[in-house]
Model the fold of this input.
Amino acid sequence: MTFKILFVCSRNKIRSLTAEHLFAATPGIQVRSAGTENEARVRVTSGHIGWADLILVMEKRHRDRLRQRFAHDLVGKRVECLDIPDEFEYMDEELVATLRSRVTQYADIQPPTPHNDPLLQ
Done:
């Protein structure tokens, strides 16, 4: 069975999108990303919530917004906060390192590295 992780930030342009692309080739999991704001690249929906086994938000305010909008859909769902501030660019080295470290605290996975994923070389 595949484990499904939803990454959430505000606009789904930097942090959650980086996380989705970083973990996309990880065996045994499926990943998606979405944002909480109206202008998000992909806006989070109840379908995203229902799909996910684990929801990882970048900041506490994202968790709060999900609880406000999707309280019923979140019943029984695991939502964890990675505490990653909005101060990075897409695929920033420090952001990637932080995601690798923090995501593995909540899911028993190892993201691809440049040594085993040609997309990261």
Notes: The longest strand covers residues 3-9. Confidence is low (pLDDT under 50) at residues 116-121.
